[in-house]
Amino acid sequence: MKYQYLILSALLFLACTVNAQTTVKGIVVESGKNNKLGDVFVRDNQNRQMTLTDSKGNFSIRTETGHTLVFSSPGYVSDTLYVTDFTNKKIELVAQTIALRQVNISAKREAFDAHKEYPEVYTRAKVYPLSPTSWFSKEAKDARRLKKYFKHEEEERHVDEVFTMNYVQSIIPLRGQELENFMTLYRPSYAFIKNNNGPSLAVYINDSYKKYQALPADKRTLPDLKE
Q1: What value does the mean pLDDT take over residues 36-55?
Q2: φ and ψ at residue 198, rounded to 5 degrees
């Protein structure tokens, strides 16, 4: 009995060790400011594992040495990590300007379809009345978070396709940083874009420009992100 107990203990220890050694944990922050970034999409290009950072920027993902992890979030330049060990990681994402983001979006837009790329997320996100696991397991909860993330990203990309820098500057005289500030401050919602046509958007931009002109100079710039 004692011998069997020792074998069982050794197997459990080995299983825990293997699991610990194939999981990378860490935190994602904004480069230069150290702001913790929540809802950053993290994926392993080789084993198709994926996750989102929590509200404090923490992440945990199953991976292996030799794999590449990709970190992406709207408004930031994507970063990659080549896994060589399983120590805790600190990933710093660089904030990008609207102009740079639009260039990146136009290059990537066609390639991403969450339903085709990650059908398993939508399968795991389903809730079955007689399956407690589908309600309460971490895998199911993570899948539902990812599903919401994909939906939000789809909507934001649609806004980016319509509310473009070229279109906005064809209506109002702002350029450069002022134009970027204006587009960030008065970015329309997905619901507005979905329910309004081109002329309505043009009216919205003109009305927003009047509001922008009425703002004090210090209110026309973007506030720093908080911790």
Answers
A1: 90
A2: -55, -50
Q: Which of 64, 58, 117, 54 is nearest to 88 (CA)?
A: 58
202 in any annotated domain? yes
Residue 33: the pLDDT is: 87
Cβ neighbour number for residue 190 with a 10 Å cutoff: 16
- The residue segments making up the domain with residue 200 are 164-222
Tally of helices (H runs) and strands (E runs) in the chain: 10, 8
Interval 192-202: pLDDT, tens:
999 998 899 99
pLDDT digits (tens, 9 = 90+) for 98-152: 555 555 544 444 445 777 777 777 776 776 664 656 555 777 788 888 888 888 8
> What residues form DSSP beta bridges with 48?
none
Q: Which residue has the tokens 């150290």?
A: 34
Q: Which two tokens stand for residue 201?
A: 């958007």
